């Protein structure tokens, strides 16, 4: 007798593309994941994202200076 296989959403099967995860997060949860290195953004947009990140989560360590 073969049993039913049930895997919750996100487990098994095909792995979702990171951009698809971000897109679905925005549409379904109103969550935004943005890289400061995203070339689709202008400098003022990247600066706004950086300022928001600093405000919400604190300033990040500069590259190369790990505690």
Automatic annotation (TrEMBL):
Residues 14-24 have a biased composition (Basic and acidic residues). Residues 1-24 are annotated as: Disordered. This is Uncharacterized protein.
């Amino acid at each position: 007798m073969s049993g039913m296989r049930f895997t919750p959403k996100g487990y098994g099967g095909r792995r979702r593309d990171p951009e698809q995860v971000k897109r679905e997060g925005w549409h379904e949860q109103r969550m935004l994941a943005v890289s400061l290195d995203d070339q689709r953004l202008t400098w003022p947009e990247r600066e706004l994202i950086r300022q928001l990140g600093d405000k919400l989560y604190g300033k990040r360590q500069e590259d190369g200076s790990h505690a």
